[in-house]
Amino acid sequence: MKFFKSLILIFALLLNAPVMMAAETVIEADTVAEAIESGGYVYLRLEEKNTWLATTPFTVSVGDQVEYVPGLEMKNFHSKALDRTFDTIFFVQKVRLAGKDSAQVVAVEGHGNTAMQGQKAPVDLTPSAGEITPLKEGKTVMAIFSESAQLKEQKVSLNARVVKVSKNIMGKHWVTLQDGTGTEPDNKLLATSLELVSPGDLVVASGIVRTDIDLGYGYKYKILLEEATFSPGIK
Q1: Residue 14 clears pLDDT 60, i.e. is over it
Q2: Is 148 helix (H, G, I), strand (E, B) or coil?
Q3: Which are the contacts of 101, defined by CB distance < 8 A and separation ≥ 6?
Q4: Domain encompassing residue 64
Q5: Does some domain include residue 126?
Q6: Is the pLDDT reported for residue 147 higher than 80?
Q7: Strands 84-91 and 52-55
Q8: Are 147 and 211 in contact (CB under 8 A)?
Q9: How far is the CA of 113 from the CAs of 9, 94, 169, 195, in angstroms?
Q10: Number of folded domains in the chain?
Q11: 11-20, 101-110, 178-187, 215-224: which is most confident
Q12: pTM attached to this predicted model
């Protein structure tokens, strides 16, 4: 069970990476023979290769030509949403309708989001030093990192800006917070929550400090703010 949870998280994090099809990238093409959207994915059966792809949903129909970069191959993969086992399926993060230029590559913001074509370059939401008012009797991102040993398993609150959101990963949302304090890479705090906020929101985030989190497959976090809740931030 832990293996499959880690696999789902890794795929979602891969989908959250920037998407571009560089000239040197190996791109394959095929015709869509079958398309099924279910469980936050679109499953595509390819006509010539007679195999399946799975990716974040986007507008695609039977008969469309698609171009894609081969991704993670899974054998005997069982989809609970479809109640179906695939002999072989490829989870891909880079896919587009054939004939579209690089600006129209499917851009993926996170697991469960509808893919968007022609997405504009992302806006830099990083706050500058002193831009975010520290929360009275609260903490800053820098303080949470520097005092992590003392704050472990403690509830803390901070005033911060939401700079990134990855939706519906392992039953919760993953929210990246910044407040203009700390130095790279310890200037970003990742929070997990059942509540949904949007990039650019100013929030007061409250949650439990967890340290030295190892999700497997190289995904390790010095700190996570878990069971987070959000209220309007202080300007």
Answers
A1: no
A2: helix
A3: none
A4: 2-104
A5: no
A6: yes
A7: parallel
A8: no
A9: 15, 15, 11, 16
A10: 2
A11: 178-187
A12: 0.54
